[in-house]
Amino acid sequence: MQGATKGVVIGGAVAVVLAAVGFGGYGLFHSASSKPAADAKPAPKVTTPPSAAEVRGTAHDFLAAWASGDVAKAAALTDDSAQATTQLTSYRSDLHVSRLTLTGQPATGTRVPFSVRAAVSYNGQDSTWAYDSALTVVRDGSGKPVVKWAPAVLNPKLTAGQGLEAAPSDTPPPLTAVGRDGTPLTAAKYPSLAGILTELQSKYGATMQGTPGMDIRVKAADGKPGASLHPLSPGKAGKPLKTTIDAGLQAQAEKAVTTQGPDAAVVAIQPSTGDVLAVANNPAGGYDKAMLGTYAPGSTFKVITASTLLTTGKVTPSTPLDCPKTISYGGRSFHNVEGMQIDKATFAQDFAASCNTAFISTANVLPDGAVENEAHDVFGLGLNWSTGVPSWDGKVPVGTGSEKAMTMIGQGQVQVSPLDMASVAATAKSGVFHQPVIVPAAVDNRQIAQAPQQLPASVDSALRSMMVLTARQGTAAPTVGQLSGDVGAKTGTAEVDGQAKPNSWFLAYHDDVAAAAVVPNTGEGYKFAGKIVAALLSAS
User: Fold this and answer.
1) How far apart are CA 102 and CA 124, in angstroms?
2) Fewest CB atoms within 10 A around its CB: which of 260, 343, 395, 498?
3) Are strands 6-10 and 97-104 parallel, antiparallel or unpaired?
4) SS3 286
């Protein structure tokens, strides 16, 4: 504190300017003469409450000594010199106080409020902390007016045994995240990424060599850090973190989800790599339905069921397979949307028209668990994905009887997110499961999920031919049928118990971009989710 100027104001009327060479003040305890009479008797001990003048004078002298750095003098003006010495010393050293200004306010009885303005310099970072506190003047055992010592004098948030310290913040270092082309990604420009950007900061801020901020914190009696009371600095970002996000496609996704009603969500993936290109939700803030939502996917799941059937070799796209209005399996009756019926249909036509009954009629062709194994071993669902941020990688439990039939059409216990179904579309397009990532694995050398199997070339070719038929002539044609290039799709309409309308689902690929969207409680897949996916694929 050498050479620093401090200021103390007590009672709002008397100002004292203090310097390193000394300080001025005013006397409160002058005697009538400079020398007592020889036969004078000791004055009796004063037991009455401190007078207003004693309160002002004691508070003034204490604050002046504290502000000037004279810990010994300040501590001597308290009723617990030892504790005051330790804690006043710690205040200056642990907080790294370079300048202290204390301003007293009018007393209320024996209580004197005062304001604190502390200049703190720590690890090359400067900050000013301003707050209010108070002290109380009492008499000690000899009757002398003193400050009643407690840690709360230093700061009202402190209790017995606690102190203060400047320490690194619990908040992770700031992070600059950029898209695959280097475009900065901010929550202001891409609001659907707000939660993802927060997660990235938490996980990668230090990895990218960012500097954490500094806080003023409570220090517990055992030395452990307590609550943060004041941020000193926000810290500094390190190297930019390159993500897989395509800034242009992200902007389109943000716009597209706002057109089809609340709770819409969409994810776009690059089939050749598994890179997540865009993630968007409506509303943008809050729960990330696109990455973490758990929904029944409805008929979009038929991509996996069809792959399972094609792999058996017992079914091909041209295999005759009728589509009746209703069918019973496992003691339960199933129907098609709007009572659809197709006589003399082929498996490919059933897929393109999204015929539930045709698919359920093949249940006896497949052993129990076959579809679930295909979802896990070929399409990678439930493989504990490590995308770089929290995500849901799907759940397809083994079912028997009517539950088996429901799984085949994406109902029952199947739970997936738009991320999962975008990956299903991407796997169908490439023939190989590439675990979705939003941060390249090379950044932190984390383990990426690998599917035990991949689609046989003949099966993948047949599956894509049916998805192309769906996109060009089937239920997806009204939305993506006019896109040029390689386009495949599947629609989905998932019924939900207790919900007025079904969830609208749609997945598709266009060249090297695959996407999936869900719009809950709306209607058929192509009418709502399909428009979101079509908008993205048109921009790709």
Assistant:
1) 24
2) 498
3) parallel
4) coil
The helix (run of H) or strand (run of E) holding residue 53 is: helix 52-68
- Is the pTM for the entire model greater than 0.90? no
> By CB neighbour count within 10 A (0-12 exposed, 13-18 middle, 19+ buried), where does 149 fall?
buried
DSSP conformation letters of 355-408: -HHHHHTTGGGS-TTHHHHHHHHTT-TTS----SS-----B-----THHHHHHH
Q: Are 15 and 101 in contact (CB under 8 A)?
A: no
Amino acid symbol at 92: R
> What would the pLDDT profile of 91-131 be if each residue is shown by its tens digit?
999 999 999 999 999 999 999 999 999 999 888 778 899 99
Residue 96 near residue 121, CB atoms below 8 Å? yes
Q: What does the alpha-carbon distance between residue 48 and residue 139 come to, in Å, rounded to a whole number?
A: 8
Strands (E), 105-172: 111-122, 125-139, 145-147, 163-168
pLDDT tens-place string over residues 365-381: 999 999 999 999 999 99
Only one residue has tokens 């990668």, namely 204
| Residues 134-179 pLDDT 10s | 999 999 999 999 999 999 999 999 999 999 999 888 889 999 999 9
* CA dist., res. 9 & res. 105, Å (int): 7
